[in-house]
Each structure stands twice: as structure tokens, then as C-alpha cells.
Amino acid sequence: MALRVPVKPCWQKAIAGEAKVPFFTISGSDFVEMFVGVGASRVRDMFEQAKKAAPCIIFIDEIDAVGRQRGAGLGGGHDEREQTLNQMLVEMDGFEGNEGIIVIAATNRPDVLDPALLRPGRFDRQVVVGLPDVRGREQILKVHMRRVPLATDIDAAIIARGTPGFSGADLANLVNEAALFAARGNKRVVSMVEFEKAKDKIMMGAERRSMVMTEAQKESTAYHEAGHAIIGRLVPEHDPVHKVTIIPRGRALGVTFFLPEGDAISASRQKLESQISTLYGGRLAEEIIYGVEHVSTGASNDIKVATNLARNMVTQWGFSEKLGPLLYAEEEGEVFLGRSVAKAKHMSDETARIIDQEVKALIERNYNRARQILTDNMDILHAMKDALMKYETIDAPQIDDLMARREVRPPAGWEDPNGTNNSDSNGTPQAPRPVDEPRTPNPGNTMSEQLGDK
Predict the structure, then answer these.
(1) Which end of the chain is less crowded, N or C, counting CB atoms within 10 A of the terminal residue's CB?
(2) Distance separating alpha carbons of residues 131 and 169, to the nearest angstrom
């Protein structure tokens, strides 16, 4: 049986505990060393020990280290790894019987395994274990939460809904980070506030408050992130805006975080085009406020992601009327598997030119849509910038207030560091006011270069 799992240690411990038979475990990289013949010898020794202890289980972790496809080396000759694999194939399904021995292997790269390893009689049963769904995440969280004292407001179901794509190890790390935040705050129990901080750290990176930014850089970052958030709220089928911050995190100067409402399975054309528009929202906000000549490099990663998304829509997903539902992308094969050494070209120069035209047209259409949305909502753009400059981080409730043109409530747990009002009598930024013309920027209120992607 071959396992394709992101949680191999859990499977290994569970099988060893439930089977109640001798359990042999070895890594694929343990077979091969610098001396010729060591790998095959270790395979024979392992099966000899297993026969003496039968019934038993052999667990081979990371079998792709020794089970890669044979005959693909660029030199064309056999190597030590192939001899080791040959011996393993013989032991698993050779002349001598191996009754009472169950062989289980795990890998995250089933695509590179030798076909002989996967044929019936060897690893003929393949179990694919993906990331846990929302119910699985809730149960995993409850297991790890037993080790820490929890506040009464903790709801594992809410945390599970807010952590799509998390593995079991990620969830264990989430609980641990939340406990560390509580310990740093001299708290006896872990509350939802600590879990929210831990989730932000894992998803968006650790805060870099020590990074020195000028007011002009902070303002440019605030406009950039506000552009992302506004477009994301107003285009159809986009994931909800969860949090916007201008506090540097990881390699980013600011982050606009969108949280899916459920586990993503597939995406429609409308959803993909909405993502492209949102990716260009930050650059467009800078362009509208500061002018084309003062647009920063902060959108470099946004442009890269949007371009790759548009090209995949045209070449792989059939979202081009001119080209139709055909595959034009050339899949990159593994050179060490002999799959890309002699690769034929699958398209003509004219088709490649049309692909470039379709990708550009797709980008331009969504770029212009995003520009129009921001132009029609300049009052919200300025108000969101003001809120970010004051609070540095705003959540969904503050974004709801801004989009509804209401006064912005302070974020939960926020305290005014100056102890004074920043705008009106209750210390909250004023509601957005409609404007006729874009605000004129101050000279020098630009960023010549931004280190990191927003």
C-alpha cells in the first residue's frame, strides 16, 4: 500500500499502535550510501528480519528517494539507486514468498515512482490523504487544545472555518503559537484573541515593527492595500476581505488578507477574473493618487501572480474564445526522469502570438475594470487610507463600516497610544465623503522603491 499523505508521522504512529504486531520503519534515503551494493544488501537484511518476526509491518518513508523511475539517467547506465530498487521489487514479489509481511510506503511525489513499483502485487493499493476539511480541522484542534488552558470564549468550529488549507501540523502549530502569545501577555488562559494573533502570524508572517518606515511610505502602503481591499469587496465571487494591515510582515510592507468561506474545490471564470482585478487594485491606487511616474515596485508580485493566472486561463483552462477549450501549455517534465530531454513543440509561432494577445486582452479588461471601480469610490479609498494610518490594522467590521460610508469603529482591543482623538469627538475616522477630484499628493509623498511584495 502506498500513501500520498501530508501527515505521514500521524499515520505511522496510528498504524504501529493499532496493528499490535512488530513494526519496522526505515527511510528511503537510508538504503543508499557511497559503497556499491550497500542498498541492495540492506533491503535483503530488512526483509530477512521481517520474515523472522512475521506477522509484521514494514514502513518505508519517503520511498521516492529510492523508488524513482529507472532508466532515465542522462548517462544511460545503472546506478546504486536502481540496484536497490531492483532488489526491493524482487523481495516484494519475487520467487520466495513473504507471507505475513505487509509493506507500506509513503511519499509526497507519487508521479516520479517507477511503474513497476505500483503494479498489482506490489504497491497496488494507493491511499490519497489530502488536507483535512472543516470538520476534520475542528476535531484536530480539539485534540491539541486539551494541552492548554482555554478561555470560555474559545470555539473550535469558528477557528476551523477560518483556517482553510491547514494541515494537522499547521493546526498544532496554531495552538502552540496562541499559547505563546498568552504567555507573553501574562495570561492564565488562551482566548480567541491569541488564536487570531497566531493565525495572522502563520498566514501573513511575523510582524516587523522594528522596520523603520517614513510617513510617506506608510501612506503609500495604506493606499496600496486599500486598493486591494476595495476591489476585492466590489467584484463578484471574490473571497471576503478578512484583514488589512500596513504593519510589515515577512517580506511584505503590507498585507490584504482574503479568507475563503469554505474549502476551495474549483473556480469559475468570473471568480478568476475578479482575482486578477483585485491583484491590480494596489498598483492602480498608487497610480491614481500619485500619478504614473510615481508608481512603486510594490506590485511586482501582484503582477506576476495575475499574469500567471491569466496565462493559465488561456492555455490550460479553455477560457479564450479565439483558442477554444484546448490545452496549449507545455508541461515541464522531470529532466532526471527523461521526460524533458527531447520535448517537441506543441504550437506554432502564430498560436503563441495569439496566446500573448489573449493574455494581454484579459489583463487589460480587468485592469480597466479595477480602475473604474476605484475612480467611482475615491471617497472610500481616502477613508480607508485614513483608517489604516490610524489603526495600522483593520478587520472585517471596520471594512464593512467603510464600504457603507459609516464612521469606523475602532478594532477590537485597540487603544489610542496618544490618548487623544485623531479625527472626531469619539476618536474614529470620519465617514467617507464623496469627492469630485482625486486628492493632490504632497511632493515627495512617494516611494522610489519598496523592498518586498505587498
Answers:
(1) N
(2) 10
In the chain, the amino acid numbered 454 is: K
CA–CA distance, 438 with 435 (Å, rounded to integer): 7
Going by the DSSP 8-state scheme, the letter that residue 250 receives in this structure is: T
Residue 450's closest CA among 288, 302, 230, 228? 302
Measured distance CA(249)–CA(168) in Å, rounded: 24
Beta strand 126-128 pairing with 2-4:
parallel
Residue spans of alpha helices (H) in 205-292: 215-234, 269-279, 281-290
pLDDT attached to residue 230: 96
Average pLDDT over residues 167-195: 93
The Cα–Cα gap between 428 and 433 comes to 15
Per-residue pLDDT, 72: 58
Q: Residue 296: name the closest of 304, 285, 307, 306 by CA.
A: 285
Range 134-204: architecture per CATH: Orthogonal Bundle (1.10)
H-helix or E-strand containing 172? helix 168-184
Question: Annotated catalytic sites, by residue?
Answer: 225
Q: Is the pLDDT of residue 451 over 70?
A: no
Residue range 215-403 in CATH 1.20.58.760? yes
Q: Is 3.40.50.300 the CATH number for 2-128?
A: yes
At 140, give phi and psi (nearest 5°). Answer: -65, -40
